[in-house]
Amino acid sequence: MSEHELRVSKIRDGTVIDHVEAGQALNVLAILGIDGAEGFGVSVGMNVPSDRLGRKDIVKVEDRELSQSEVDVLSLIAPEATINIVRDFEVVEKNRVTRPEGVTGVLSCPNRNCITNADEPIETRFDVVADGVRCDYCATILRSDIAEHIDV
Amino acid sequence: MRQDHLITATQLSRDDIEAVLDRARAVADDPAAYADRHAGRVLALCFFEPSTRTRMSFDSAAKRLGMNTIDMGDVDSSSVSKGESLSDTVRVIEGYADALVLRHPSEGAATLAGERVDVPVVNAGDGAGQHPSQTLLDLHTIREDHGLDDLTIGIMGDLKYGRTVHSLAAALTEFDANQHFISPESLRLPRSVRFDLHETGAQIREHEELDPIIDELDVLYVTRIQKERFPDENEYHRVAGEYRIDAETLDAAADDLTVMHPLPRVDEIAPDVDDTDHARYFEQAHNGIPVRMALLDTLLENANPDGDEGTEVDR
Ligand SMILES: [Zn+2]
Fold first, then answer.
1. For the Aspartate carbamoyltransferase regulatory subunit N-terminal domain, which residue ranges apply (chain A) (predicted)?
2. Is residue B310 part of a domain?
3. Which residues line ion ligand 1, judged by CB < 5 Å?
4. 3 state DSSP class of A50
C-alpha cells in the first residue's frame, strides 16, 4: 500500500490508471492516443506486484484527465482498472471503471468488408456484449483481440 | 409492425412478422384491392451490385401497389464509380423517392443508409450480412405449409456466407422452431450468428450430414455452395457433391416435407425434385410479390401516418 501511494503521489496533476492487467499498459497509452510526442509526462510501470492481480501495470499521465469514451474503452481491456485523478499531488477522485453499453469512434471493425471500413463519413459504433464488443453495422464480434483494433 | 426501415431480420418481433405475413395473405387473396394503394409514390431501387431477380421482384411488387420505380442504371457508369460515398448517394436519392430498396456489397450498408435518410429503407442484401425481405417470403412459404411453431427445419449448404440463412435463422428464433444446420465444416454458421442464436436460447444443432436427420424435418432449406469459397476446384466439387439432393434423397423424408431454395440454384437440387410434391422453391420465389407488397405497404403506412394512402382501401 505504501509503495502504491508513493507512486501515485509522485505526479502533481493528471491521471493514474492503476490495476491495469499486466501487459496492457502500452495499449492503455494507445487508447489515450499518447505516444510521448504530446509532451505530457508519462510513466509506465509494468509487472508490478499486486495483491489483487498478482502482477499489474500502472500508467501515469501528467496534466491529462480522461474522457468518458476513453474510460469506456479502457474498461474493455483493463476491467479491473482504477482511475485516480490527481490534482496538486492529491488523489481527488478514485473510480473503478465500469463496462459501458457501447463504444463509439474508438475501435475499428475487423471485418474488412464492413461499411465502416469503406470510404464513408462514419464513426464506428460497438455494442458491449457478454465477452466482447460487437459492430453495430455488420454484427462482427471482437473478443480477446480488442486491443488490436484500437483506432486512435 | 412499427418500424421505419427493414434492415435486419433480428429487428423483427414475432408480432411484426405475423403482421406482415397476415397482410401478405390478404394481398395474395385480393391483389386488386391493393392495386392503387400507393399510386403516385416512387420506389428507388438502389442496386450497387447486380441482382436481377430481387430487383424485378421489388419492381413488380411496387408496380402492383400503383407505385412507379426508378433505379440507378448500370452501377459502373453511375456516380458510384466516380467515388461518391453511399451516405451522399442515398441522401440525394431520398429526394427522388418515397422509399429506398438497397442492395450493396458491404455489410452494414443498409444500417448506414437507414441512419442517413428519413424515407423507409429496405435492405435487399448487404454483403454477407442480411436479406430480411427474403426471410419474410421464406417465412410466408413455411407458414402456408406448416405454420411457424412446432416446426423442425434443416438449413443446408453455405451457412457461413449465406445471408438468407443468417436472416432466416434469426427470425425463426421468434417461433417454436427446432433448427438443424447441415454444412461442411468450413462453411458452418459464423460466430456472430451462432452467438445470436444461443443468446435467444434457440434450439439449434449442427451436422455435417443430412441423412441422419432428414426424416425429422418439416422443411429442408437448401442453399448453393459457391465455387469461390474454395481455394481449389477439386475440393469444391468433392464438398459440394455431398450437399446435393435428388428425388432419391427425399425417399427417406416425411411425405409432407417442404423443400425450399432461395434460388438461383445450380445443381444442388436435381431437376427430378421439381416433379415431387416436396418442391416449393418456385412458389417461394412467387411469394416474393405479395410479401414485398405487404412490406412496402406497411413501411409506407408507418412513414405516412396521416392516412395519406392514395386510394383508401377498406380492410
Ligand atoms: Zn463492422
1. 6-97
2. no
3. A 109, 111, 114, 135, 137-138, 140
4. strand
ipTM of the complex: 0.87
Contact (Cβ atoms closer than 8 angstroms) between residue A60 and residue A82: no
CA of A137 to the centre of ligand 1 (A): 5
Domain holding B207, by residue range, is 132-285
Contact indicator for B194, B173 with CB cutoff of 8 Å: no
Q: Do A28 and A44 fall into the same domain? A: yes
The whole-number pLDDT of residue B246 equals 97
pLDDT of residue A1: 47
* Whether the predicted pLDDT of B129 surpasses 60: yes
Q: Tell me which chain B residues have a C-beta less than 8 angstroms from the C-beta of A113.
A: 105-107, 127-128
Q: Dihedral sign, CA of B161, B123, B20, B283?
A: negative
Inside any domain, residue A6: no
* The domain boundary residue, chosen from A80, A96, A112: A96
Beta bridge partners of A21: A56
- pTM comes to 0.85
Residue-number span of the structural domain to which A86 is assigned: 14-96
What is the grid cell recorded at B230? 474454395
What DSSP designation does A25 have? Answer: H
pLDDT at B184: 94
Is there a contact between B44 and B99 (Cβ–Cβ < 8 Å)? yes
Q: Are residues A43 and A86 both part of a single domain?
A: yes
Give yes or no: residues B124 and B170 share one domain: no
Within 13 Å of residue B177, how many CA atoms lie on the same side as its CB? Answer: 27
Same domain, B168 and B261: yes
In which region does residue B292 sit, left (phi positive, over 0), alpha (psi from -120 to 50) or beta (all else)?
A: alpha
- Asked if residue A103 has pLDDT above 90, the reply is no
B81 interface with A at CB cutoff 8 Å: no
Pair (B278, B203) in one structural domain:
yes
Q: Note whether A23 and A91 are same-domain residues.
A: yes
Cα–Cα distance measured from residue B98 to residue B300, given in angstroms and rounded to the nearest whole number: 8
Q: Is the dihedral of CA A7, A13, A17, A19 positive or negative?
A: positive
Is A90 found in the same domain as A106? Answer: no
Same domain, B101 and B210: no
Question: In the 8-state DSSP scheme, what is residue B271?
Answer: G
Question: Any idea which residue has 474510460 for its cell?
Answer: A71
Residue A19 sits in the same domain as residue A53: yes
Domain count of the fold of chain B: 2
